[in-house]
Each structure stands twice: as C-alpha cells, then as structure tokens.
Amino acid sequence: DAKTTQPPSMDCAEGRAANLPCNHSTISGNEYVYWYRQIHSQGPQYIIHGLKNNETNEMASLIITEDRKSSTLILPHATLRDTAVYYCIVSSGGATNKLIFGTGTLLAVQP
Amino acid sequence: GAVVSQHPSRVICKSGTSVKIECRSLDFQATTMFWYRQFPKKSLMLMATSNEGSKATYEQGVEKDKFLINHASLTLSTLTVTSAHPEDSSFYICSTPGGPYNEQFFGPGTRLTVL
Fold it and tell me: Which of A23, A57, B66, B110 has the fewest CB atoms lying closer than 10 Å?
C-alpha cells in the first residue's frame, strides 16, 4: 500500500471548517483514499473514502485532486468533539486488505 | 455499520502470566479480523490478520508463539498474550471489514498493563 504524508498537528476554531491535507503521491490506480479518526483512548472510526471523485457524507467531505496525488478532508463546522487524530490511508479496499496507519494529524478544535 | 466489542476494556496482570482479549463482531459475520497494538502517543501498528477457520497471518517482527490468535467462529477472535512482560503493556485494538465498501470497524480497545 502507498504511503501517506500528513502534518503532525493542526488547530481549528470551533464552528469553523477544518481542512486536513494528505499527500499520497505514489497511489496506484486501484487504490482508494480512506480517512479514519481516533479520539483519545478509543478505537478508530471510519469517516469517508474515495477513489477519484469528491465525496460527501454526514460527517465530512473528501476532495481528491485530479492527479490523485493528494486529498483534503473537510469538516465543515468543527466542534470540540472533533478533536482527534485523523489518519489518511490508501488501500485497494478488499475485505482482507490490511490498513497501514501513518502518524496522522492531531486536530485540536479550540473553543 | 458493524458493531465490534472487546473484552476486557482494561486488564492489569503480573509479569509472566497470560492474558486473553476477546474481539466480537456483534452484528456481522467476520471471516477476517485484524489485531493492532498502539503504544502511548504512537500510531496503530498492525500485528496480525485473523482468519476464521485457519491460522492467523502475522506481520514481520510479531512473535506468533507469544501472541496467540484464535478465530474459531465468524463472530469471535481472541488474542492471547502469553507470558506477558511490562514491555507488552499497550492498547490492543481489533477491527473487521464490515461495511459495504469494506471499510474497517474497530473495537473500543483493551488497555493492558503488565506489572
């Protein structure tokens, strides 16, 4: 699986949009971009994933560049409960495909 | 999405004893489960892939005789840390691909402390 690069930490004001970048320049054509987050002392939680089109669900939006070498996770209105480590992972998405976690981005939402 | 539970949520044991951690898929039949461990302020590290009815596949550097994995049913995988030592103290997390896009659903984790 391709490696990803994320900034180690980011701050965001409560109520504002949080934009979390991820570089995955070696992504293969059949690999998806997945985003998970981990709130302190809990198991990770799936947020969203995409292949090449932008995606939106009730939690977030995912913007993938046309060359697929980078993406941005957008939390439109961050709340204090969104404070967590956010992981960007690329994977071919099969049921037996293991996830390799990088170091992620610690998003701190400030009141 | 799939609901995954782990038991116990935290355990403290003496050095040299064995500890069993259970991972259950409550509403989904999981032929595959993954086991991770996470040291403080570090990322999750994949330990092994648990396959129902067959032997687990271990990642490089993970001792299969120390971390015994059993996946005897479609809803239960167990990880046994044998002869635990203080350096095995960690947060152990399981997951299963339970969503329509094979997204992973994670258990809440088990905090192991070896004295």
Answer: A57
